[in-house]
Amino acid sequence: MKSLVLEERLKLSLRDFPIEREEVLGARDVRIKLHTVGICGSDVHYYTHGGTGVFQVKAPMILGHEASGTVIETGPDVTGLTVGDRVCMEPGIPDPNSRATRLGLYNVDPAVRFWATPPIHGVLRPTVVHPADFTFKLPDNVSFAEAAMVEPLAVGVHAATKAQVKPGDIALVIGAGPIGLVTALSALAAGCARVFVSDIDDAKLEIAAKLGAIVPVNVQRQDLAAEILKATNGWGVEIVFECSGHPKGAEGVFDPLCPGGRVVFIGSQVHPVQYDVGKAMVREARVEHVFRYAHVFPRCVAMLSSGAIDVKPLITRNFSFDESVEAFEIAAAAPKGEVKMQILLPQ
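Predicted structure:
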């Protein structure tokens, strides 16, 4: 089927790709016609660098994992989903018998098969077969575009859950990219009274400021810790979410943190970063890490449907499927003011 294929680093093709052997419908699977696929930072990183960490592209691979679509076929043992249902899909399929999965930690199952993570193919193609258990029906008031945002939103909701947000907490989100902004929305929905968001892109910070009780901070012009300590009467924030993946962002997480505060690392760090144990110790900081998400897709869909979270302002551009290569070239250039770009497949 015609697919967006990463042939090798910096080389993309939109071409027919043989994947039929992987598309056999099992008894508890559904076949989905893809409608909308978001461009994730990890997709772009595979394109620009050929891999990240232990995940290296060694053979042509189809990109894309943030997706929504329509069920067009169901396996004989599928219940709860029928042909014609509009759905979004959780892209990671764990080993149901692994120890991590049995403990409920299926996102860190070493055997998890995750779309567009080598060697598993992604979903920038017309159809995909997926387990019904990881496929979620959409309410009528949730669009395909919003549904394709459930995957990144799940990261933010998982992070807010790990942070144990309490009503009235004040948080800082470092980085105003897609993950940073969905994390800010998740923190507000979980009960934060106010969220500071830092970045160097004024256009993204302007978007952030319109999302709710968010205070933008441009770290090229402002001292982040000083601004926060001034605004909190010297106390600091209860939670810091590091979403930038930038070494300076990661190194400074304890400076604006209050005593007993929590830090959640979300952004991927390409190289080891400095970790100031002394600053963490004197605050008795609790530090958490996030790897994707677990058990949150239904929560995300419910919050989109209720209006508790609105991701529509984060969708800043879309492309046709035929424009997929151009879309990735633009995304790789990181134009200012762009948050989430999406690709629309033919219907």
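Summary: Residues 2-149+311-344 form a domain with the Quinone Oxidoreductase; Chain A, domain 1 fold (CATH 3.90.180.10).
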